[in-house]
Structures are given as C-alpha cells and as structure tokens.
Design a protein that fits this description.
This is Transcription regulator PadR N-terminal domain-containing protein. The termini are far apart. This protein has one domain: Winged helix-like DNA-binding domain superfamily/Winged helix DNA-binding domain (Arc Repressor Mutant, subunit A). The relative contact order is 0.18. Helices cover 58% and strands 17% of the residues.
C-alpha cells in the first residue's frame, strides 16, 4: 500500500478531500486549497494528471458526470484501496508528528525552581 512509504502532499490532500464525498475537479482543487490552509494550489493540468494517475492506481474512481452550463463535470470518489491508503498515511503522519513533538519537548528549557 502506498501509505506505508509515504505519499506526496498533494496526493494525500486529494485523497483526504475525497474521503468526505465525491467531488468534481474544481471542487477538489478548492477543498485541497482550503484543507492546506492555502499552501497547496493545484493547477488544472497538475490536478487532472494526478486524478488520472490515482484512477490508474485504483485509489479513486469516477463517480458520475453531469453537464453544467454546457460543460461536463466528472465527479470522483475514493475506492476501498484509496480509503485504506489515506488512512495509513494519516496514521504515519500522526506517528511522525508525535515523535517530533516528543523530541521538541526534551529541548525546551525547564523553568527554574
């Protein structure tokens, strides 16, 4: 599973965004931007290349298509494998953060008695 080795932040954010509900491309990009507190902005080409890759890897799949103002919107959803990958990556990141916090606590000066 990809989550064990770690995944790139945009991939993690796309999967995390889709954990809530199926979304179309612009909705995914908007939610990734919000979830990352503005740090990650997915450009159209980058987003759709990532979505195609995630579909090919079996982590997401098309959910449905709808036409809005003459344009086709394709919605994507997580697969069971995608849910497992984002769950594993979340646990991996939490473990790393916990280990880093423990080390940082040891570096903090102790108050004088």
């Amino acid at each position: 599973m990809r989550g064990v080795k770690g995944m790139r932040e945009p991939t993690f954010l796309i999967l995390a965004t889709l954990a809530g509900e199926a979304r179309h491309g612009y909705g995914i990009a908007r939610e990734v931007h919000e979830l990352s507190e503005g740090r990650v902005r997915l450009l159209t080409g980058t987003l759709y290349t990532a979505l195609d890759r995630l579909v090919a890897e079996g982590l997401i799949e098309p959910d449905r298509e709808e036409e809005v103002d003459g344009r086709l919107r394709r919605y994507y959803r997580l697969t069971a494998e995608g849910l497992a990958a984002v769950t594993a990556e979340t646990a991996r990141l939490r473990q790393l953060a916990t280990a880093a916090e423990a080390r940082l606590r040891r570096l903090r000066p102790r108050p004088a008695s």
